[in-house]
Amino acid sequence: IETLFVTADFLTGVIVFATIVGNVGSIITSMNAVRADFRQKVDQVKQYMTFRKVGNELERRVITWFDYLWLQKQVVNEELVLDSLPQKLRFEIAVHIHLAALKRVPIFAEAQPGLLVELVTRLKLQIFSPGDYVCDIGKEMYIIKRGRLNVVSDDGNKIFVTLEEGSVFGEISILNIPGSKTGNHRTANIRSVGYSDLFCLTKQDLWEVLAEYPSARNTLIERGKAHLHKDNLLDEDVAQIVQQDQAIIPEKVIELQKNIDYLETRMARIMSEYKSNMTKLNQRLQIIEQLTEENFNNQD
User: Fold this and answer.
1) What is the largest distance, in Å, between two alpha-carbon atoms of the chain?
2) Where are any strands of DSSP class E within the chain?
3) Per residue in 159-200, pLDDT tens?
4) Which CATH number is associated with domain 79-243?
5) What strands lie across the sheet with 149-152, from one edge to the other?
């Protein structure tokens, strides 16, 4: 019995060891494949820059960019990887990664959970190199995941403030707040200090989601108005006029819908009468054809 126990224990140890070695080998093979694919992409870019006679400074920036991607383990195409997962799992991963960041945005702090979950699935990661400007403020909202960015003057020489990890900018502009003195356009120049990772939410994605949450939309706009009012960037008269116009819109929509329903009913009735008349006409034509054929046969 002791011999059998020792033998079984030995075999178990061998199997476990072989399994561990096999898994380690698979991991190393996979890492080597990723590294080789990455190096191939870098080499292709280098060849292209040499062929196009790109300057040394720009070439250095490109290579540094690839180095940053490798160090941050961001060489994997996230969208391609996530596409292989079921929709529910992709949804849960997006919530796990982005929800905490979105809750840090003041205007979304007390938003409905359903709204936040819908928005996190729309967030996209963007990476900026040192000296890059964030160009689409007014069309997109940004949450800084990693890095630092400066708010600078138009000539880029004066730094007004430095934004750190967790900071948010552009959230007011994408709300399209009526009466905003900024015109809901870009009001600042944002320049990346080093490499910066930003989560981005576009104006289009935001409003597509808000269409399903009208009460949350009104709440967000009111919070945005309060923010603009505090900074003296809200034209109260224009905001009130637009608000009155928007209050009339639902009534006009209801009236328009009633007219559409009426026209659809009339059209359905007309089509029904048309089909009935066509049926009767076909029946009469058939009778005429039969009578004509009988008359012709009688003459023969």
Assistant:
1) 119
2) 124-128, 133-134, 140-146, 149-152, 159-163, 168-169, 189-192, 196-202
3) 999 999 888 888 888 887 776 666 656 667 899 998 898 988
4) 2.60.120.10
5) 133-134, 189-192, 149-152, 159-163
